[in-house]
Design brief:
Length: about 290
């Protein structure tokens, strides 16, 4: 009997450890998701004048999913400590909800990839048109061209549509902002960057969206497996607790411990049945005669 009880305790301990390991992995995954979402949100924030607002949604959703996963992991650990099948089942349901959110983030990120090129071309042209009239736009365009080492939309010649040429300039001379030139050439003659900003900014935005989509899909796959494991572990806990109760009942019975309260009337009735009235005639009673 002691061996069986030890086996049950060992099985429950293994279940707890398994839940702790799963939750620890989910906690690390949540931290990674928050880090990736924050990093991509920061990148988009640096180029916010060239990116539509709805492109920020997948990154923000990824951060929210990571935070939710942290609380869900803590909830699962508490359920494991208390050996509560209800809490573990709720934990599995929460994992399934997080899976749906991750799937939504991945689908939205994949859908946005097809809109990147058109959006970037439009926002670049709008920003260059407002370059001289808006200091914030001017600062953003200069930052983009310096960081990405590019100039204009397709080439530096695109600036001829937005900036007025200087006096005595030939047709081949194109006025460009100083941010179009490498720092080493500013003191001499400005040699604009060879590449336009369209392809480079498009690559940054598209790769960020692809990273969100791929990461969300990968984590979602692990998440649904975790949800299935949670339901299986809840069933294991319930079965183990039932076996514990059965072993405890058998031990009580073997030690002669009554699990039901003493009923005097029932005992009195038993005595009356075993000791019938002496005046009652029984077949085995001696004959009066």
């Amino acid at each position: 009997m002691t061996t069986d009880r030890n086996d049950l305790n060992m099985g429950m301990r293994c279940v707890k450890y398994m839940i702790f390991v799963i939750n620890f992995m989910f906690l690390l995954t949540a931290i990674l998701i928050v880090t990736v979402g924050t990093a991509i949100g920061t990148i988009f924030g640096d180029f916010e004048y060239f990116i539509d607002s709805h492109f920020f949604s997948p990154a923000h959703l990824l951060v929210a999913i990571g935070i939710i996963m942290m609380f869900v992991s803590i909830f699962g650990c508490i359920g494991a400590v208390k050996e509560s099948t209800a809490m573990i089942n709720i934990y599995g349901v929460l994992l399934a909800i997080v899976f749906i959110l991750e799937l939504a983030a991945a689908i939205s990120a994949f859908a946005l990839q097809g809109q990147v090129k058109e959006m970037v071309r439009r926002t670049l042209n709008e920003s260059m048109a407002n370059y001289n009239g808006n200091p914030s736009v001017e600062q953003s365009v200069d930052f983009m061209q310096q960081v990405l080492e590019c100039c204009g939309v397709d080439s530096h010649k695109d600036w001829s549509f937005f900036l007025q040429p200087v006096a005595n300039a030939t047709e081949s001379d194109v006025v460009v902002p100083e941010s179009c030139c490498p720092p080493s050439t500013l003191k001499e003659s400005c040699i604009p960057y060879e590449y336009g900003c369209l392809d480079r900014l498009q690559w940054v935005v598209a790769q960020s969206a692809a990273l969100i989509a791929t990461g969300a899909m990968t984590v979602a796959f692990v998440q649904i497996l975790g949800s299935i494991c949670a339901f299986m572990l809840a069933r294991t806990i319930r079965r183990t607790k039932s076996l514990r109760a059965a072993r405890r009942w058998q031990l009580q019975q073997s030690l002669g411990i009554m699990t039901k309260p003493h009923n005097p009337s029932y005992t009195q009735m038993e005595k009356s049945e075993k000791n019938p009235d002496s005046e009652m005639y029984l077949p085995n009673s001696p004959s009066v005669n």
